[in-house]
Amino acid sequence: WLPLLRSADCWALMFFYGVTFGGFVGLASFLTIYFNDQYGLTPAVAGTCTAFVVFVGSFVRPLGGALADRFGGERTLAILYALAAAIFALIGFGLPTIWLAFPAFFLGMLVLGLGNGAVFQLVPTRFPTRVGILTGLVGMSGGVGGFSLASSLGAARQMTGSCGPGCLCFALSAVLGL
Q: Which tens digits make up the pLDDT trace of 12-51?
């Protein structure tokens, strides 16, 4: 698999999934804390809100692949990254109530879930004889991305008292994906 790492397309696919799935996993692991800390939700209510947006994002993943099959993976991802950048920038600048934040995170997780499916549509188009190993590399980068996002949100909160800068950095990563 080392020769594959010489390919720019391999790194691009890994980055794309690092943003979509990494963002999804990172938020899934951090949102309960965020909802509790930022909006004063009880841990049970914050966990329920998190579970709901995670379920929605997971459920639409096949739809993201279907959209990519129909409209092309690159076009689909471009639209989804533009939406993710806008949504997470809005979140990063701060939403004053849970009534604004929850719909934003709902849409954000929906977009990331769609992006998860769309990324994998590109793997066989770029590497038709190496789908298995590329799927492994791309999947690995999603895990790394999730760790990175959760860490950056926590670091931003610790340094500034707000997760906003971490969300803005994530929005920037979506812009880079675009």
A: 999 999 999 999 999 998 999 999 999 999 999 999 999 9
First to last CA, the chain: 26
Q: At what angle do helices 164-177 and 73-93 cross, to 10 degrees?
A: 160
130-139 per-residue burial string, b: 16 or more CB within 10 A, e: under 16 = beeebbebbe
Q: What DSSP string runs through 85-154? A: HHHHHHHHH--SSHHHHHHHHHHHHHHHHHHHHHHHHHHHHH-TT-HHHHHHHHHHHHHHHHHHHHHHHH
Non-local (6+) Cβ contacts of 76 within 8 A are: 64, 67, 68, 114, 118, 121
- Distance between CA 150 and CA 166 in Å, rounded? 9
Q: Are 177 and 15 in contact (CB under 8 A)?
A: yes
How confident is the model over 129-164, as pLDDT tens digits?
A: 998 988 899 999 888 888 788 888 888 888 988 888
| Side-chain half-sphere CA neighbours of 5 within 13 A | 5
Specify whether the CB–CB gap between 52 and 41 falls below 8 A.
no
